[in-house]
Amino acid sequence: MNKSALFLDRDGIFNEDIGYLHRAENLIWKEGIFELLHFFKQRDYLLLMVTNQSGIHRGYFSFADFCDVSFYIQKTIKHKLQFHLDKIYFCPHTPEEDCLCRKPKGGMIAEAQRDFNINIENTLFIGDRWSDILAAREYNIPYKFWLNIHKEQQILQQGEHIITHLHDILSFFNKNICSNKDMFDNGA
Fold first, then answer.
1. Is 168 a catalytic residue?
2. Contact (CB, 8 A) for 90 and 45
């Protein structure tokens, strides 16, 4: 049975984007992230991180550094919420390498689809960069939330929402979607 998924970028969504985060002690959790994860896990959503980490190929930090931060994230979520992310997908490539996995391309979403046979109809993507929204568009993810702290100007399509805080997503679902039982059914 396929489940719906919540795709989340890392830097700017899980944690404050300090630029090339590679030490757990420098991670500052984004306000609202734990409530958001709890809300969707209660509804049996897959929780999937998809993150560009070009600092690895740029030589700013190692794969082991990335793994240490990822382990810390998983351990903290498990401690606070009694569950962890279902999987972390990452792209270590620079834009110049023109790989298929680096957002705005949807390679990480495609890999997750192969791994979990995701029900795209009720799936969401939350990111803080326009490249996140473009990756979600490539796979027709219907609910896209853009934490646009960079004040970029883009033309939104149906199902795309600008938010100023992660709590805005919970407000959106409590107001607009919870009346649609099918959104949270997940086939159970």
1. no
2. no
C-alpha to C-alpha distance for 124 and 45, rounded to whole angstroms: 10
- pLDDT tens for the chain, residues 1 to 188: 689 999 999 999 999 999 999 999 999 999 999 999 999 999 999 999 999 999 999 999 999 999 999 999 999 999 999 999 999 999 999 999 999 999 999 999 999 999 999 999 999 999 999 999 999 999 999 999 999 877 778 999 999 999 999 999 999 888 875 555 555 555 44
Whole-number Å distance between alpha carbons of 34 and 130: 23
Catalytic site residue 11? yes
What homologous superfamily does CATH list for 5-184? HAD superfamily/HAD-like (3.40.50.1000)
Q: Which of 9, 17, 65, 128 is catalytic?
A: 9
Q: Which residues contact 155 (CB under 8 A, 6 or more apart)?
A: none
